[in-house]
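STRUCTURE REQUEST FORM
Protein name: O-antigen ligase domain-containing protein
Source organism: Rubrivivax rivuli
Requested output: structure tokens
Priority: standard
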Amino acid sequence: MTETIIVLATTFAGFLLIDPFFGGALTKATIAKWPLIALGFGSLAFHLVGRALTDPRRLRLAFSEVLHDWWPIILLAFFITLGSAYARFADSIRESFLGMGLGMFFLPLLAVAVRASRHPVGFMQGLAAAHVLTVLGMMVVLFADLHVFHEEIFVAVPLGAYLLVARPVKLWRLLLGFAAMFACLFSFKNTTFLILLAVLACCGLVWIQRLLRRHNRMGVVAAVYFLLPVLLLGVAALFWLWWTNRTELPSGNVQYRTEMYGIAWRRFLESPLWGTGFTDSSVVYFELYRVATRVQTLPTHSDILDLLAHGGLIAFTLWGLTVWRLFSISMAAARQLAAAPAGDPNRAWRWLFVLGLVQLGALITYAVNPPMINPVHAYWMWGAAGVMWALHRQLVAPLAAPAPVQHLVPRHLQFSRWALLRAGWRWLMAAARRRRAA
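Status: completed
Returned output:
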């Protein structure tokens, strides 16, 4: 039951990400952010309390593993949240980093929730279904031209890659994979192009490793000699497309970004160890020219630079350790897929690889954009990382099967059906005697 609520919370986060009716404004609205935070943390807390009552040993093991592996992001989340809470409630700074700090807590909490689950496979299948439904909704919105996705595209591209490389090959999967990739191009953003190229490059590297591991050496040599000219032609085609269409491509707002990045860098140099402690505003005044908005206070457009400017080397180091852990899990999935026999579906490892690609796309996105500040994006970014870790642990070191629930429930909470019936019968008889005496 509690796992179903978490899946529903993830589906709600997907609906906010799709934003089918508000044209890109829903994820930024306060009316969407706080219900998601309440539903996300509430469902996770409800689930963990249930695990504490029914299987405390399993929960303790999950907590100890998460603390061992994810202490950097837990410390970083506390650092950002405490500083932002001070800015929000003591200094009345409305545009704070509170969403960034709270969003990071989704990683350890979802990791514990999935790891401590009595049925982790079914739980992760439900979360995967929410992911697929979200991407399908994004495709419909993109094809219908309801609005343009930008900071959300890192969720969609990896699933398209999974459908293209899944085994056994099926026509509907290929068509859906090509549709997902093609739909993402409708966003027409430089971030999308970078994510597409990075995801396809990672899939190509895995495929090349599988090719080089074949036992038929002559076949390997022939394939390599065929592959090299294909790659060269592909690079030449991409260069030609860029050169002939470079004036029509998105500019990337180089002047704006240069100014904002310079402000963030100078702020870091003023306090390189801990920055502002996240007690300052998450937006700064842009004075080069008027922007087509109602205000001139805008975000830096680089969450990595914000970590440096407001958290200094302390925040940057904690973030770096977190990214390194995610990178190591992604590499383990890539190696496993590269070494798998031909035709082996390897669904679990493929999903792990997809979640790694989600983290790669998220990294590209928040390197040049500010999605971390938004709790909707943070839920997908860090929640997917927590599920990724839990899936990896389930594959390499599964926990022992849990004991039956009735032996784990505390004695004062154990009731059989006959005991409840007897208690009810006694209550009715006592009520009848009191009525006759009256």
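Reviewer notes: The CA atoms of residues 202 and 357 lie 8 Å apart. The mean pLDDT is 84.
Form closed.
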